[in-house]
Amino acid sequence: MSGHNKWSTIKNKKAVVDAKKGKIFTRLGRLITIAAREGGGDMDSNFNLRMMVEKAKKSNMPKENVDKAIKRGTGEIEGAQIENLVYEAFGPGGVAFIVDTLTDNRNRTVAEIKHIFVKNGGNLGEPNSVMWMFERKGVIRISKENLKDRADEIEMLAIEAGAEDIDNQAEGLTIYTSADSFVKVKQVLEATKLELDSEEIEYVPKTTIAVDDKIANALERIGEQLDDHDDVSDYSTNQA
């Protein structure tokens, strides 16, 4: 039920966090600003803001930066107007992409995202050309290292809390929930005191597409370039 290999992405992000700390802080700041703008600056009542701030803390983002991002969202201090724009695209082999961006210049961003796909044998799609292939799901990942031999217990707790599906992989557990039950499942798992490697609301593909090595390499290049783009906050694919 997953798109691109998020386990690999998580490991890579941890490995380069120091080298790209400034870029990571910029993305997190934009996410915090949008969450505060859409739901207010109170973390007790704005779950999305609380989740973004928790991510910032895990990445060791300075509290001053977090506070400024919240105040930009609530209008207490001025800042560039950030938009959350979602692009639908096709890579080689007909593999579908959904690309989440946070930008202060939509014309620049769409041109650069289009360039990434076109130069690697893909193209941007029309609205709703890709979205129907995905569902919005809560996705929680706990690595084998962080599970500490408690996989069976965690699976049972997640199911009882409302998880829809659990994928037990070599890297660890990937737990899928509906968007509505995500918060409850997340809270139950956090109460176990185990570290969650990631917890997100993601676009999860309904079905996946297998590709050959040549196409897989081209898709990997697209993924790397999206990861490196300052305006891209996340992306999902239906690549198997």
Description:
The protein is an alpha+beta fold and 240 residues long. It has three domains: 6-74, Arc Repressor Mutant, subunit A (Orthogonal Bundle); 83-132 and 207-237, Alpha-Beta Plaits, CATH 3.30.70; 134-205, YebC, transcriptional regulation domain (Alpha-Beta Plaits), CATH 3.30.70. Helix content is 45%, strand content 22%. It contains nine helices and eight strands. The strands form two sheets. A four-stranded antiparallel beta sheet has the order 3-1-2-8. Strands 5-6-4-7 form a four-stranded antiparallel beta sheet. Strand 1 (83-90) and strand 2 (96-103) form a beta hairpin. The mean pLDDT is 91.
Brief descriptors of the model:
22% strand; 4-stranded antiparallel β-sheet; 240 residues; 3 domains; 8 strands; Alpha-Beta Plaits; Arc Repressor Mutant, subunit A; alpha+beta
Topology:
Layout: H1 6-15, H2 21-39, H3 47-58, H4 63-74, E1 83-90, E2 96-103, H5 106-119, E3 123-124, E4 134-143, H6 144-147, H7 151-161, E5 165-168, E6 172-177, H8 182-190, E7 198-205, H9 213-228, E8 232-237
